[in-house]
Prior knowledge:
By secondary structure, the protein is mainly β. 0% of the residues lie in helices and 47% in strands. It has a 4-stranded mixed sheet, with no helix packed on it. A 3-stranded antiparallel sheet has the order 1-4-5, with no helix packed on it. The protein has a 3-stranded antiparallel sheet with strand order 8-12-11, with no helix packed on it.
Amino acid sequence: VSFSSTNSAVASVSGNTVNINAVGTTTITAFQNGSGNISAALPVTRTLTVVKEPQSIVFPPIPDQNIGAPSYALQGFSTSLLSLTYFSDNEAVALVSGESIIIVGPGTANIQAGQNGNNFYAAAAPVTQTVTVLSQGSPGAVFRVNMSSQTVSPQGVFLSGSFNNWSTTAN
């Protein structure tokens, strides 16, 4: 038995192996020429349609960052394992450099991960994560305090301490 393809750009045949080359449609034909006492068989054809494989992006949330923090390596990947591209909608807060973000200033930026696909994979739907950059000592800094076992007096609660060389005092 031998095989042929009507569109080798989509699928080529080597021996009895079909090699997928691109998206599209081809017809694969099987021939049996016969020999000696055996008559040739009628050719058998089958349509082969090659479509792009779907893929998706996994892009976990980006933790809050502080001014002066080192660049942050983005943790996204595509299910096809093709590389992602990233985009920042606010370069005054975070710049994209390859697969990392560089912290520029306080505020928020939406970081979008994308993957355009290739000859075998369809484009993935983009995924966006928001990064919040806090300026040191700013009133926007958030501190979480477990008050479950504390007693509150009529004068309120007094907190003091330090964090990353920040001095804090609050009533």
